[in-house]
From TrEMBL:
Keywords of this entry: Metal-binding
UniProt keyword annotation of Metal-binding present: yes
Source organism of this protein record: Pseudarcicella hirudinis
Binding sites annotated in the UniProt record for a divalent metal cation 2: 116, 140
Residue numbers binding a divalent metal cation 1: 81, 189
Identification of the protein by name: TatD DNase family protein
GO CC annotation: cytosol
InterPro entries assigned: Metal_Hydrolase, TatD-like
One Gene Ontology term of the molecular function aspect: metal ion binding
Coiled-coil intervals: none
Alphabetized SUPFAM superfamilies for the sequence: Metallo-dependent hydrolases (SSF51556)
Length: 227
């Protein structure tokens, strides 16, 4: 049965034929890993990371410890979302430091990274080059201009597009045809939409059947999770 793979979501529901990677922000206030695993026991997949929005210097050590323990769980497929955000007021150098710690952890564990990046694409690309990161890096919720998209593609990032595709005038809608199919993912993130609707609109943009699109995304998914 072909699946609608949702590479990054904060939604709690499950869709028919859906496979979701549910995001856990271990440093989000009130986060409790046990609670998630109680609700989401079997057959669920997760990503887990320290989100730049909730960074607190005194909690990073503990957060990394929780993260490292959590990542031993086979259901947690990816590290993140983690990354860089120029809009929040948290010190940017500190954000970089915590991001790099998570990249090194992902490399050690051989798990892909799911990345939050706001107005920091040159730095993101520079970090990938400088550290010579080998695990797949997925930029989630991409909704930026074609030039940045091209740079990311050229530097072997995967691009995940989401609800912005439902708006024909968005940057994501302009970028979707320029992302090579073998570097593309789709997601719902925290938006109130279905992953099947994102697949439907993407299949129209690309002139592909839903089944072919599902298969292409599934192939990318197999590739990144078998590293
Ligand atoms: Zn998210």
């Amino acid at each position: 049965m072909p699946l609608f793979i949702d590479i990054h979501t904060h939604q709690l529901t499950v869709e028919e034929n859906g496979l979701r990677i549910h995001n856990l922000a271990v440093n989000q206030p009130g986060f409790c890993a046990d609670e998630y695993f109680r609700i989401y026991h079997t057959e669920r997949f997760f990503s887990a990371g320290i989100h730049p929005w909730f960074l607190q210097r005194e909690l990073v050590g503990k957060g990394m410890e929780i993260l490292e323990n959590l990542l031993e769980n086979q259901q947690i497929l990816m590290v993140g979302e983690c990354g860089l955000d120029r809009i929040v007021s948290i010190d940017f150098e500190f954000q970089k430091e915590v991001f790099i710690r998570q990249i090194l952890l992902a490399e050690k564990l051989q798990k892909p990274l799911i990345i939050h990046c706001v107005r920091a694409f040159p730095e993101l690309i520079a970090i990938k080059k400088r550290l010579n990161v080998k695990v797949p890096m997925i930029v989630h919720g991409f909704n930026n201009n074609l030039q940045i998209c091209e740079q990311l593609v050229k530097n072997q990032f995967y691009i995940s597009l989401g609800a912005a595709l439902l708006n024909p005038g968005s940057n994501a809608s302009k970028a979707v045809c320029t992302v090579p199919l073998n570097q593309l993912f789709l997601e719902t993130d925290d938006k109130n939409c279905t992953i099947s609707s994102i697949f439907a609109v993407t299949s129209e943009y690309l002139g592909l059947s839903i089944e072919d699109l599902q298969e292409a995304i599934a192939q990318n998914f197999r590739k990144i999770t078998e590293i």
